[in-house]
Specification:
With 187 residues, the protein is of the alpha/beta class. Helices cover 49% and strands 19% of the residues. It has a single domain, classed as Nonspecific Lipid-transfer Protein, Chain A. It has a five-stranded mixed β-sheet. The protein has a two-stranded parallel sheet with strand order 1-7. β3 and β4 form a beta hairpin. The two termini are 13 Å apart.
């Protein structure tokens, strides 16, 4: 049964699924999974430097990891961050149609996002080099460079298992998880 995004039912079922996965999963979390997103959300919500740097920020940001079938990503992953004046309201995996509605959508290949989230590549530099494509107003992002940099630093702090480094069994598990998320949540 697919829950409809934006409803209380979807939100409750999603949060219950995340809570269950957090209880059952061990760190490091696989990048882009619901438990990884929950860890990221918690870090952002508790981070005083981010709150300071983002006090004037308004708008949602989506990290869109493009499909990489040979790595178990049949479809892209949309990681939606609802950010408002230094607050992180939530970080969720969302259906593609919802992800595309964000104020800012950052599209990139899996390997590019892994480089960003491991600290090897800066987001702003990646955008300027065309390695990550921005849908949204670039000058707004550039004005918030300290907040954007802090978000990247926080993603670096998560104990992460990168998708490109998964063994065959782990790729299969990820593929099954993503199929389940699509069936239940439209993700």
């Amino acid at each position: 049964m697919t829950h409809t995004y934006g409803t209380a039912e979807w939100e409750q079922a999603y949060l219950e699924m995340v809570e269950k996965r957090l209880a059952e999963s061990e760190k490091p979390y696989i990048m882009g999974t619901p438990e990884w997103a929950a860890a990221y959300e918690k870090l952002i919500q508790e981070d005083e430097p981010y709150k300071k740097y983002a006090r004037n920020w308004e708008g949602s940001v989506v990290i869109h990891i493009l499909p990489r079938k040979e790595r178990g990503l049949e479809k892209g992953i949309y990681l939606f961050m609802d950010l408002w004046h230094g607050d992180c309201r939530f970080v969720r995996l969302v259906p593609p149609a919802e992800g595309e509605k964000a104020n800012f959508v950052l599209n990139g290949e899996l390997e590019r996002w892994e480089a960003v989230m491991s600290g090897e590549l800066g987001t702003i530099k990646a955008m300027m080099q065309g390695k990550i494509k921005l849908k949204g107003h670039l000058p707004t992002i550039v004005r918030a460079v300290k907040a954007a940099t802090r978000l990247v630093e926080l993603s670096n702090a998560i104990e992460t298992k990168y998708i490109s480094r998964l063994n065959e069994e782990e790729q299969g598990s990820l593929k099954n998880l993503l199929a389940e998320l699509e069936a239940k949540f439209g993700i």
